[in-house]
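tool=predict chain=A
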Amino acid sequence: MNLTFSSRELQDLAIAWVALGVAFAIFFAGGGSRALSMLADRGIVGPLLVSLVTAGLGFLLHELAHKVIAVRFDQIAEFRADYGMLFLAVMSALVGFLFAAPGAVHHRGRLTEREHGLIALAGPAVNGLLALVFAPIYVAGVLVGSPLLSLVGGRGVAINLFLAAFNLVPFGALDGKTVLDWSKAVFVLTFVPAAAITVFVVFVLGIGF
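tool=predict ok
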């Protein structure tokens, strides 16, 4: 497998990563003037780093997973940032809610329905794996009484679970629609557990928020 990145693609990935980090830092600080005041008083470096490691990394690796599997199936694939949507992500965070669609991996070549479904499934699958990576960090933070570890771990778990479940929704250009078109069984076996676990961890246990 020949996985290469053009200078334009690396630039788009870097800009999307930083823009999402800024958007999530503002959102988790409460949005609006409250967020700006809090970040001005306490500094933006810490919140930004946390957001880059949790939300930014979740989005970044989600898109790279699509690219890796597409290239594995002999596709020409590159990530392209959507600068308008990145701007909207930051602006929406400033008014207290967050809408993030940083861009997408565009690929071309001949694909079977199964291959197309596997490319789509790769992104949410990586987010699920990242949630498992962040889980022991959260547990360690709780056990040793470290607010920083608990914050990074909990937020990493919550964001990646949410990304996995949301992207598997079978609607529009989301990954779930492609997975469902390929295999109803695979869709049910991935979307239902992802949605149930996300609701339990994020909304019942309140982890990450």
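The beta strands are 76-81, 103-108. The helical segments are 7-28, 32-42, 45-72, 83-94, 113-144, 147-167, 175-182, 184-204.
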